[in-house]
Design goal:
- With 238 residues, the chain is an alpha/beta fold.
- The chain has one domain: Aminopeptidase.
- The chain is built from seven helices and eight strands, in the order H-E-H-H-E-H-E-E-E-E-H-E-H-E-H.
- The radius of gyration is 18 Å and the shape is globular.
């Protein structure tokens, strides 16, 4: 019997840059790095809270990390020069392998297990990866409030991103929502790695990027933005 895709979709939410925590074994490497750890270089402000809100609304499992990307970047392949920071790049191969085995590999393995189990049960997985971006980078002002990143070659991702963007326009016309901005969704990242493992009929990966200019722990507008992200996604699903 044919089952419409939206009835067999399985949702999972991740946050690769949820915090700026440095494990005690590596604190000495980051002496004098507090400013960088507290900036967009150290973590994605607001992304963890957004991931929790999305997972709760979708009743979806979540995989999150609060270890700083400056220790190891969970959203980069191990072959990328960006996976290590200036603090960790010169470590010995054996020291890097310890970091990978303790922090990088378990994170990716947990997501892989969730996706494999859902696909084996006949479900299509829709993976939402929660991120945020600095409003100004290298002197360039970013002209968006929300970015939706996806691979244009995968029809399921195009469709989800289009519906989500349309829902934003219908519900909150003031927000500047752009697709594949400020980064390209097919660039090196966790979603790209998952695409290499699963067919388009099995896996849809969408990264949501929120402008950090809109994020403040005590701001009503920040709470409203999170609520809008959730309700527009729910509207897109309907």
């Amino acid at each position: 019997m044919y089952v419409p895709e939206h009835l067999r979709d399985f949702w999972v939410v991740t946050c690769e840059h949820g915090g700026n925590r440095i494990p005690s074994a590596y604190v000495d490497l980051f002496h004098g790095w507090q400013a960088r750890l507290s900036s967009h270089q150290g973590y994605d402000a607001g992304a963890l809270v957004m991931a929790r809100d999305l997972a709760a609304a979708l009743q979806a499992p979540r995989v999150v990390s609060t270890v700083s990307r400056l220790l190891v970047d969970l959203n980069r392949s191990l072959g990328s020069p960006q996976v290590w920071s200036d603090a960790t790049r010169a470590l010995s191969p054996s020291s890097k392998q310890v970091i990978v085995s303790r922090h990088y590999a378990p994170y990716r393995q947990r997501l892989m297990e969730i996706v494999v189990a859902a696909v084996a049960a006949g479900r299509r997985v829709i993976h939402v990866s929660s991120h945020s971006f600095t409003p100004v980078l290298d002197g360039q002002v970013r002209s968006a409030d929300v970015g939706l990143l996806y691979d244009p070659a995968r029809a399921g991702e195009v469709a989800v991103a289009a519906r989500w963007k349309a829902a934003f326009a219908a519900q909150s016309g003031e927000l500047r929502v752009r697709r594949n901005y400020p980064y390209h969704g097919k660039n090196d990242g966790l979603t790209s790695a998952m695409r290499r493992r699963f067919a388009p009929s099995q896996y849809v990966g969408i990264e949501i990027e929120l402008n950090q200019a809109l994020i403040s722990s005590r701001s009503r507008s920040w709470r409203n933005l999170r609520r809008t992200v959730v309700t527009t996604l729910e509207s897109a699903l309907r």
